Structure formats: C-alpha cells, structure tokens
Amino acid sequence: MEKKEIAKIINKDIKTLYNWEKNNPNLYKAVFNYFSKKENNPLESKLLELFEKLDEKEKKYYIADMEARILKKEIN
Questions:
Q1: Residue 69: pLDDT over 90
Q2: What is the DSSP string of the chain?
C-alpha cells in the first residue's frame, strides 16, 4: 500500500508519514507493516472481519476449537 493511501485511511497528511519515517522510524514501520500485511493477506482480513462480528462467548468457542485442532495436528 502506498503512503498516500495510508495517510488517507489514518486521516493524516502524507507529510506526517514522511516525518514519522525520518524522526520516528519504529512508528512508521509499525503503521506501514500493519497496512501492508492487511493488504497482502485477504484471507486473514476476512477471518478477522468475521471474528469481530461474534460475541465474546462465540469467540472463546472458536478459539478453543482452533487450539484443539492445532494440538490434534501436533499429536499426529
């Protein structure tokens, strides 16, 4: 994702991103990596979008289910 797009999404001027890149590189990298990762993996983005629509009890259920499936794979 380009700086111009990121600036628009976070409602900052593009100059702010350039300043972060120069004066606060860790903040810039964190923001840039977040948006790059989000853009690069649409499957994870979709999963997160759906997960956020669940209530807390449902979230706990699906997390437990995923953990159980992973443990089962590791055992086999």
A1: yes
A2: --HHHHHHHTT--HHHHHHHHHH-HHHHHHHHHHHHHHHH-HHHHHHHHHHTTS-HHHHHHHHHHHHHHHHHHHH-
